[in-house]
Amino acid sequence: MRRILGDIKGDKIIWTVVILLSIFSLLAVYSSTGTLAYKYQQGNTEYYMLKHFVILFLGIFFMYLTHKIKYVYFSPVFQIALWISIPLLLLTLVFGLNLNEAKRVLPLPFNLTFQTSDLAKLTLIMYLARMLTKKQDHIKDFKSAFVPLMIPVILIVFLVLPANFSTAAMIFTTSLVLLFIGRVNMKYILSLVAIGLVALTIFVLIVLQMPEDKQGRLWTWKSRIENFTKDTGDNYQKEQAEIAIANGKIFGKMPGNSTQRNFLPHPYSDFIFAIIVEEYGLVGGAFIVLMYLILLFRAVIIVTKIPQTFGAFLTIGVAFSLVFQAMVNMGVAVGLLPVTGQPLPLVSMGGTSIWFTSLSIGIILSVSKEITKKEQIQLENYHNDARVEADYT
Question: What region does 266 belong to: left with phi over 0, alpha with psi -120 to 50, or beta?
């Protein structure tokens, strides 16, 4: 154990954020899965916490292994994985598990599920970081730079959109942020946004002309947005989340004392932030927000220090994606956004989603490890120079 701890490299603050979020995750999942345990596990309330602990432990182990690998070696592997993710997305649309009228996941052994959009999102960020690095000399060109960058983005967003609008929107937004940071011509980015909005509007208008029983997932999007914007009183999830947050007050009801966990749908995933606020109060909720902001801040620090362009693009893309997803989840819980079904990274109960989050953070740590090596070499050179100067004086 001491050898492993001594072998941990990279940004120590990010490691601290990971450990603190993991502790909160275990406590919140144990507290919020009581109803689930009585429904499916004969009241064995430890079952889901132990299962989550194993998944979380494996996730941190994967993070450790990932951060040991030099980040540049991920590029060729993830390029192959990107093109594997595209047929997997198609396979999910056809044969995926039908949950809430949406096929988002493929079934795996041990009651686990694999959300193929997680793989597509991470590999797409890697692809964009690599291509932006290679094409910096002619990044303003439409044909040789913009088109190759956008083809996989449009393809993946198109395949994710039918079953998971919020994930498709986040992938698209993250891609646009990377393109902006990568100095792609702004008029091309704005044109793409305009074309996307027009295409989405036409698609929605066509589907809305169909009978409600034929609208599929679009009917769910429509009802959620209507409930959110018009406050029709039919948004049960939003109401229960607001009650949980109101009950939390400043310091909360203390761990294990949530009452809304018995009423909120998916209190262990989509609405886990509401349970955290109910049990730990405004202080606990602010602490969780602070953890994600620190993660983003440390990523920005890494970007400013890493000399390689690829490492900078990769770090900011992965960090923005994770923090953006966290803000969307928390925005839904506090009523700022319509219900999306996005988990809180590294906190919500999950399977492969936690592992992909762990891989993402491991990549950031791998980049930060190179900065640590560089600083150590500079420090050693400084001491050597000082020693030589002392010998001559």
Answer: left
As given in the structure block, the two tokens for residue 87 are: 């047929």
Question: Could you list the mean pLDDT of each consecutive 10-residue stretch along the chain, which spans 393 residues?
Answer: 64 94 94 86 86 93 93 89 91 78 73 85 94 89 88 91 86 93 91 83 68 56 59 71 90 89 87 94 95 96 89 94 95 85 89 91 93 64 53 53
DSSP 85-151: HHHHHHHHHHHSEEETTEEEEEEETTTEEEEHHHHHHHHHHHHHHHHHHHTGGGTT-IIIIIHHHHH
The set of long-range contacts for 331-337, using a CB threshold of 8 Å and a minimum separation of 24, is 332/241, 332/270, 332/271, 333/241, 333/245, 333/271, 333/272, 333/273, 333/274, 333/277, 334/241, 334/242, 334/245, 334/273, 334/274, 335/238, 335/241, 335/242, 337/228
Domain residue extents for the chain: 1-68+236-393, 77-234
Q: How many helices (H) and strands (E) does the chain have?
A: 15, 3
If you ran DSSP here, which 8-state letter would residue 72 be given?
G
Distance CA 371, CA 64 (A): 17
Max CA-CA distance within the chain?
90
